[in-house]
Write a structure and sequence with these properties.
Helices cover about 30% and strands about 20% of the residues. The protein is built from 13 helices and eleven strands. The strands form three sheets. A five-stranded antiparallel sheet has the order 4-5-8-6-7. It has a three-stranded parallel sheet with strand order 1-3-2, with no helix packed on it. It has a three-stranded antiparallel sheet with strand order 9-10-11. It starts with a strand and ends in a 5-residue tail after the last helix. The mean pLDDT is about 95.
Amino acid sequence: MKPFDYARADTVEAAVAGGGRFIAGGTNLLDLMKLQVETPEKLVDISRLDLNRIEERDDGGLTIGALVPNSDLAADPRVIERYEVLSRALLAGASGQLRNKATTGGNLLQRTRCYYFYDTAAACNKREPGSGCDAIGGFNRIHAILGTSEQCIATHPGDMPVAMRALDATIVTQKADGDKRRVPIGDFYRLPGDTPQIENVLEPGELITHVELPAPVANARHLYRKVRDRASYAFALVSVAGVVAVEDGRIAHAALAFGGLAHLPWRNPAVEQALVGQQPGTAAFEAAADALVEGARGFGHNNFKIPLVRRTLIASLRDLTGEASA
């Protein structure tokens, strides 16, 4: 690990004015620093800021501080009751020890687990722009099948952000100049394009302070299904976060987000449009799966993800609609 300066911020204003990289739990950043994938010259410790509370909103939703640990968020009775998909996603991610340290804001910013990104001897446009992408044509079993570019086929590794994408969360930030902004999670992440090193819309020195969840959808079922190589502490090959409501025998609401498929938590309106207004059953589920994989592209070792995500989505929709035998 290369030498770096360290400062501790006592207020949000001091944190954003201080320059450097923010660190709280450090469950991802410290690993990257040890491998010299990232070499920040200064760390600003924000772990003591007053951003560790979960509060009620007037609209029936919740405001979640950026420093709320993943374990606390997953266990909060309001989250379990109103946003079961989020609690399930958090419990599906990492180990109990890591969830105790990992924060809400840090989880949103977790970086890819692409082997070539972590290997400083490999070509990686995300780590070193312009160097190439060894994952294309290399061993790419965990890599993306949607939203890729010729520059990068890495996937976003998170579970929590996938659930928050299905819940239409809003990310609240404070900039270095003191201005605050609210960014819908659907606008927060970026596809790789020609600049895979730019993963989100945060500006230098901009700090995530809170996440807002809107009021829950009435009478909806929640599900988080994660397909992985082993049952514990493994990143998703494919994951589905679903919130679905059925009224009078037809699907009235469908919000579906996917992990393990793209550079960001993936959500395609065409998938939900294929479901809303339809009777739950094989025809509607197959149409939604077709919409999801339209344009999907495998790169050899990850070709299996295309049929896998179709089967995973259909199985998830059967559970979400109560059509287990459809």
